[in-house]
């Protein structure tokens, strides 16, 4: 029996311990001692805690503290959570997850592989209304049809109480990352029960109180006894990141400038300037190259931007650093740039473009500016097809996996988020190779070839690097951050 399993032994004896004795460890050093109460400021208090229905980043993060999945985001990857190990077969097509022994819900009921299967089918059921079920679970065989109709076979099987087998539509190297999202966490079949480090003890519209879940398999690593979450910054121990957009969707920067005394947190998000390639002057590849070259001579952000964020594994290999080769003199260009006003990062870039009018004029480029109120309106303008009079679109993207593939997946011919409306079948063929290549070094080389194609065709160019911020009281430490957008609270304490 390993150390993680040994932590469960005192938990199974709860009925024999009085409440005070329980908090003292019930005579066993493997139950954590009483920790601090932490008061944390969040950008919003979640309206739902259902792991299948949460859709904004703060709510995803709270669900990530209340529920546990097969794996858990940790730094620049994932770590085993309720699954202690997994096997990958048939070249990445079949994944078999082995659960830890004696897993329990917070109400002491057993937690089994069948809980995962039931919860995944529930998340995919169209009646559930799970916004992220398609993007995160759609790779499972039969999942897309089930998500549309609520019927049909789905490639997820509970082979026994501790074994979950998942069959995919086609091989991917990162199912272990996709199952770290709350959409893939087991939800209780009846009543209110939790499987993660914390459980809910008070829920109000403006206040959420969590307490340690002693039935969590790794309860010994949970340091706070209680976490109080509100939107108030009075008497707070920390102000948590303010970003709202979930990974794997267009990036709306809501963080604003760095608050005083805060720590900057890197994100797997890139701010892009899209160059619309159909029905605009930028249908000419040479003109797109010229605009991209001119933009690289402007200071549009706090740090040099690259297509693949520096925090992404393999970024130094995948990113292209070739110089744009310009051929001949081009005629003057007058272009219109659009962006969503709610996107603070894009708004800052637009303001810097305005201030750079004289410098752009030297390149014979003039800009008109077309701010729109919301992301939805911006996507209507961008199409496809793009509305007349929109040549450039400021809109970023946040990756949901630790691989450049999710960013490069914006540009295939059939991508719903290909704002540029650029299409190259040879690019699509390379993408099909990349997603089936399990060896990361080999995959990064394929992705480098993809980036070179984008470098030459210029459907988009990176214009700013995204980040978020956290502010903690001097005595508070133990906050952990994964650039995918998830934070970890169970290790937080006071010195």
Describe the overall structure:
The protein is α+β, with helices and mostly antiparallel strands and 495 residues long. It folds into 3 domains: 1-31, no CATH class; 32-237 and 473-494, D-Maltodextrin-Binding Protein, domain 2; 250-468, Dipeptide-binding Protein, domain 3. It contains 16 helices and 22 strands. Helix 15 (425-435) runs antiparallel to helix 16 (440-457).
Task: Give a quick rundown of the structure.
This protein has helices at residues 3-6, 8-11, 19-23, 57-66, 113-124, 133-137, 143-149, 175-178, 285-296, 315-318, 344-355, 357-362, 375-382, 405-408, 425-435, 440-457, and strands at 37-41, 71-74, 77-80, 83-89, 94-99, 156-160, 163-167, 198-204, 207-212, 226-230, 238-239, 250-251, 263-275, 333-340, 365-372, 392-394, 396-398, 460-472, 476-477, 480-482, 486-488, 493-494.
């Amino acid at each position: 029996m390993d150390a993680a399993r040994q932590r469960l032994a005192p938990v199974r004896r709860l009925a024999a311990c009085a409440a005070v004795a329980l908090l003292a460890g019930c005579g066993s050093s493997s139950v954590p001692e009483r920790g601090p109460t932490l008061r944390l400021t969040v950008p919003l208090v979640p309206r739902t805690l259902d792991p299948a229905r949460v859709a904004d980043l703060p709510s995803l993060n709270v669900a990530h503290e209340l529920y546990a999945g097969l794996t858990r985001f940790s730094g620049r990857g994932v770590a085993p959570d309720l699954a202690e190990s997994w096997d990958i077969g048939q070249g990445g097509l079949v994944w078999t997850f082995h659960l830890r022994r004696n897993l329990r819900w917070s109400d002491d009921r057993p937690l089994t592989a069948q809980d995962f299967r039931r919860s995944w089918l529930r998340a995919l059921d169209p009646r559930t209304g799970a916004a992220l079920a398609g993007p995160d679970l759609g790779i499972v065989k039969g999942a897309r049809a089930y998500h549309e109709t609520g019927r049909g076979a789905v490639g997820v099987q509970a082979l026994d109480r501790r074994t979950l087998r998942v069959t995919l539509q086609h091989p991917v190297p990162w199912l272990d990352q996709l199952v770290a999202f709350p959409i893939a966490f087991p939800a209780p079949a009846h009543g209110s029960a939790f499987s993660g480090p914390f459980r809910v003890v008070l829920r109000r519209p403006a206040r959420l109180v969590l307490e340690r879940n002693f039935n969590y398999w790794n309860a010994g690593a949970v340091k706070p006894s209680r976490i109080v979450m509100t939107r108030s910054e009075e008497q707070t121990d920390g102000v948590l990141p303010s970003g709202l957009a979930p990974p794997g969707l267009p990036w709306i920067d809501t963080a604003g400038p760095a608050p005083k005394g805060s720590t900057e947190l890197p994100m797997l998000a890139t701010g892009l300037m899209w160059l619309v390639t159909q029905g605009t002057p930028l249908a000419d590849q040479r003109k797109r190259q010229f605009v991209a070259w001119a933009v690289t001579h402007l200071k549009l952000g706090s740090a040099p931007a690259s297509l693949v964020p520096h925090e992404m594994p393999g970024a130094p290999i995948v990113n292209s650093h070739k110089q744009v080769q310009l051929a001949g003199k081009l005629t003057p260009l007058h272009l219109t740039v659009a962006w969503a006003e709610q996107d603070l990062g894009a708004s800052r870039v637009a303001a810097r473009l305005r201030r750079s009018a004289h410098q752009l004029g030297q390149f014979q480029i003039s800009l008109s500016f077309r701010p729109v109120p919301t992301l939805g309106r911006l996507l209507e303008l961008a199409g496809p097809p793009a509305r007349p009079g929109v040549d450039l679109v400021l809109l970023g993207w946040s990756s949901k996996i630790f691989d450049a593939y999710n960013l490069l997946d914006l540009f295939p011919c059939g991508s719903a988020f290909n704002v540029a409306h650029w299409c190259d079948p040879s690019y699509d063929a390379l993408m099909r190779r990349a997603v089936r290549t399990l060896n990361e070094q080999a995959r990064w080389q394929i992705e480098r070839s993809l980036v070179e194609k984008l470098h030459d065709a210029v459907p988009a160019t990176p214009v700013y690097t995204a980040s978020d911020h956290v502010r903690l009281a001097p005595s508070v430490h133990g906050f952990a951050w994964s650039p995918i957008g998830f934070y970890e609270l169970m290790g937080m304490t006071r010195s």
